[in-house]
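Appendix B. Raw example, untouched.
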Amino acid sequence: MKINKKTILNVLVILLWVSIGSGMVVLLVSAVKKEQSKLCKEVIVEFKDDLPFRMLDETEIEYTLWPAARNNNPVGKQLVNLDLFSLEKQLEKNPWILDADLYIDQLNQLHLRVEQRNPVARLFTPEGNSFYIDEKYALLPVKLSDVISLPVFTNFYINPSLKTASDSILLKRIVGLSKYIKSDSFWMAQVEQVNINANQTFEVTTQMGDQLVQLGVRSDWQKLFSKLKVLYGRMSAEGNWSKYIQIDLQYKDQAVCIKRESNYKIVDSIAVIDTTLTTPINTQKTPVNKTL
């Protein structure tokens, strides 16, 4: 039987494609086996923020993922079994971790890139419990190794799980005032603590002069503290930082003060025309109109 050349060519083409297919299957299986055989060589913890302090360390971060570190740490184990997405979500359950990214490099090293939350104030409840609040209004647990200096707020009473719209406004005011105080070294040194009253007004206890400074429910911190600095300029010039027992800043363009030595709480009304230290301040013996 005579075989056609075209038939022979077709057979050869088929055999070629079968060989190529078989080779690709072999390579694919080999690649899969090689990938499955890759072992984790090292776990590297990195911080992707530039905060000047650390409330987290490598040990705590790894413990968040692998509580029984000796048994569960992936070093020496197959990388293919790592669920990076689940590990990221597990890391973000740590209240001090804002964001986490995990990846494996070409050297088979597992990188844990973590962004730490940035606390802006320390809060104390009426019962004496304490925690921090960050820029995004998250409440953070206090650690025994704390060395950070932050504005202090007392009488904090909000239950995060039962937070109301009014509570959200209060949290925003706490964060705003804290950031303002932190931005000025003078106020960081002068403000001892801020007490939160039941009606959500703020009152500040000072270091120098020992006055109680009433801020009311206002949030225009620049105006309030500029007005207080004007008053401090006068007190400094007189050399009498203890002249007043209370300073009320919540009224528009006024600082209403109560003298320390007055048994009857005679009120000095100090009209502040400008917010510069050189502005003259007019003192009257009768209260001024307390309009906001």
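End of appendix B.
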